[in-house]
Amino acid sequence: MIDDYLARGYWDAVSLTDILEQNALKYPDKEAVVDSTTRNTWSQLNRLTDRIALRLVELDVKRAQAIVAQLPNSVIQLTLCMAFQKAGILSSFAPMTFRHTEMEHVLKTLKAVGVVTLGKYRGFDYFNMAKQLAPSLPELKYIFVVGDDVPQDALSIKQMSEEPIEERYPKDYLRGYSYSALEVSSVVLSSGTTGMPKCIEHIGAGCKAAGWGVVQRTRLTSDDVFGIIAPFSGGPAFQSWWSALQLAAKVCLLERFSPEGTLELIQRERVTFLSAIPTQIVRILRETDLSKYDLSSLRVVRTGAAAFDASLAKETEERMGCKVVVAGGSQETYSFAQTGVDDPAEVRTATLGRPFPKTELKIVDNDGSEVPQGEVGELWVRGAASSSGYYQDIEATIAAWGELGKNGWYRTGDLAKFDRQGNLLLVGRKKDMILRGGQNIFPREIENILVTHPKVQDVAIVGIPDPVLGERACACVVPKQGQKPTLEEIVPFLKGKGVAIYKLPEKLELMTSLPMLADGQKVDKRLLVKGIAERLKLESQIDVERRDK
Prior knowledge:
Elements: H1 2-8, H2 16-26, E1 31-34, E2 39-41, H3 42-58, E3 66-69, H4 75-87, E4 90-93, H5 100-110, E5 114-117, E6 120-121, E7 124-125, H6 126-133, E8 142-145, E9 155-156, H7 157-162, E10 184-189, E11 199-203, H8 204-218, E12 225-228, H9 235-247, E13 250-253, H10 259-269, E14 273-275, H11 278-287, E15 300-304, H12 310-320, E16 323-330, E17 334-338, H13 345-350, E18 354-355, E19 359-364, E20 377-383, E21 389-390, H14 394-401, E22 410-418, E23 424-429, E24 434-436, E25 439-441, H15 443-450, E26 456-466, E27 470-479, H16 487-496, E28 507-510, H17 525-548
Parallel strand pairs: 1-13, 3-4, 3-5, 4-10, 5-8, 8-9, 12-13, 12-14, 14-15, 15-16, 27-28
Antiparallel strand pairs: 1-2, 6-7, 10-11, 11-21, 16-17, 17-18, 19-20, 20-22, 22-23, 24-25, 26-27
């Protein structure tokens, strides 16, 4: 696969470390990474990553051993990312929402020798969690802590970055440790839709392809200023970082998301490109007075397909004065499709656009045969930005890709189709499809219409068991403030939009919010269905008790 992709020009041998060092030489005084407390140039970032990498080598962290970091978005997070590349250490960045069960699973799966964490953050003690997990993890030797308040039995990342250790070593000393572009160097974690998080391998060349595709579709240059508010535990944020790194463009980070904080960041740093997840954009639109901020610098907002329909995309463009590009993807593939700034508005806002650069897509039926254009099937993906598989789990890798190597196709589980212009449309998840009396209901189709109802802020359609039809559709709705939509209101609304009768929701659940998976992008529909089932069971018990009385 490496030979094939090198021959095609999809990959090359320039490593991520090479790019950082080139940036430091060409643009030593240009700002590289910024957060609320730190501003580093490319030469400063290069020097700090050298220091941390050399200290890790001195601590006898061996090449290809793993360290897991659990941190909010910050300069130190990107510094660690590149230091791990230089020291040849397998890196993984866990969501802040992971707790003991998920962290233990990841640390054990990767046989991690270290964890980077912080003390208390937003009411939770992350360092104490790491301490509690340590006795059950014999490989775990080091707990690193960021910030000023470092416990006695932890190693200080700040101290590691301040000591001029590089003065004791030849300039090319780390060359013997650094990852090449063609080695697995990072592990991205899934949000756990099927249980424990999956550990998904990526190589440097794939990361570069993932970043450069964004550059091409959005016409980014070294003069652009990146605002990254999507969490670095997922694909979209790192994909934007790989873009910025290759351009030597400035990256601005928001440690703790808030709608107002995002708008202040755009205004203060003159952000031109914003990387955000859909829920963040919705909150910006719903919870702020946009007229109070100068957003004139903003040119592009890039977001994911999850929970982001055409009406929200249009509203974002109109109210924030920029273009919206929407990508579809997974942790296993990075982006598999994305719209571009040159696409017409109806393509940008209502589709996922064309296949991502250096990526192949096909849509197949249950037998794996391609379906005719316009028909719905499962989306399969392969290409330069895709993962090499699940960490040390060949069986799971073959199950997901069909076979190893360049002939494997990743089965996304997404139901999709191509329109007449070759743009990709997602219609739902294969496992989320509702089978009502032998007829298929694709929840995404109904969700995209219902979210435009004047009383609806957010919605998820799920299937609930039915003894006769198998399943019926239930609409889980988050109402707009002060509103209380009813089933009698939403059904005629959907009929008026041309929705077939069998697709109409037959139950309505009003909710204050929808439960989200760890990536913050996808609704946890398993949890929704479980909660509804428990309520229905309780209601049934109450009815029985009333009858008995």
